[in-house]
Amino acid sequence: MNFGGFVPISTVDWRGRAVCTVFFRGCPVRCSYCHNRSIQEGEDLRDIEEVRELIRSSKLLVSGVVFSGGEPTLQPEPLAALARASREMGFAVGLQTNGIFPAVLRRLVEGHLVDRVALDVKARWERYDSLLKEKYTHAVQESLAFCQEAVKTGALAECEVVVTLFRGYEDEAPYIARAAGTLDLVLQQGVEGTVPPLSGAELRKVADRLKRPVKIRTREEGEAVHCG
């Protein structure tokens, strides 16, 4: 696999569960605000067995594995192999994805290789293509619709829609909340350049407009559930 890094224990990537996190290098989407920009490109090829042993080394400390990036679904075969190996070791498996490869997401869920998906939805659909400079809108919509159905049928235990929200774009939240439907919704503090990030209090005001429970994530306060 094209390896992006490994964190042996994390308490922030899966609420209520200690996990290890495997990062996949490479992502076709070049978000300027990505907190993992250093692994958006480049190459560090590792044998699957080496990464499997990293996961195994965390077994006494954690109960789950999260695959993140970069974009892990860009490497479907290594991702499936590591998810399967993690299952065999008794780990719960989580996936953080931008949803641009819905067929890969579908194979993982239908193959019972993933328990939880965090799906990054970046903007209202009308802004997607201009924001990403590519025609990814339909792919993300397909991933979202699939996750909604998978949760409804029980094929997927958990899914949350994650919105990284920046000052000046607060009005995006109601559109994305409607698209998310009954899936869990996260409003995550966006940090970029010299623009002051939204505070926890400001994000809670945005959440109040949505009239539904929302997870609020900020650097200062961590994550908390807000019932608007």
Summarize the structure in words.
By secondary structure, this protein is of the alpha/beta class. It folds into 2 domains: 3-156, Alpha-Beta Barrel (TIM Barrel), CATH 3.20.20.70; 163-228, no CATH class. It contains 7 helices and 9 strands. The protein is globular and about 45 Å long. The protein starts with a strand and ends with a strand.
Question: Features of this protein?
Answer:
single chain, 228 residues, alpha/beta, TIM Barrel, 2 domains, nine-stranded mixed sheet, 9 strands, 33% helix, globular
Describe this structure in a few short sentences.
With 228 residues, the protein is α/β, with parallel strands linked by helices.
Topology summary:
Elements: E1 3-10, E2 19-24, H1 48-57, E3 64-69, H2 76-88, E4 92-97, H3 102-110, E5 116-120, H4 125-132, H5 137-153, E6 158-165, H6 172-180, E7 184-189, H7 200-208, E8 213-218, E9 222-227
Parallel strand pairs: 2-3, 3-4, 4-5, 5-6, 6-7, 7-8
Antiparallel strand pairs: 1-2, 8-9
Helix pairs in contact: 1-2, 3-5
Q: Unreliable segments (pLDDT under 50, ≥5 consecutive)?
A: none
Count of DSSP-assigned helices = 7
* Tally of DSSP β-strands: 9
Question: Which class of the largest domain in CATH terms?
Answer: Alpha Beta
User: What topology, given as strand order, has the largest sheet?
Assistant: 1-2-3-4-5-6-7-8-9
The helix/strand order is EEHEHEHEHHEHEHEE
Q: What CATH architecture of the largest domain do you see?
A: Alpha-Beta Barrel
Q: Main beta sheet: strand number and arrangement?
A: 9 strands, mixed
- What's the overall average pLDDT, rounded? 93
Query: CATH H-level name of the largest domain... which superfamily?
Result: Aldolase class I
User: Roughly what percent helix?
Assistant: 25-40%
Radius of gyration: 17 Å
Structural class: alpha/beta
**Residue share in β-strands:** 25-35%
| Distance between the ends | 42 Å
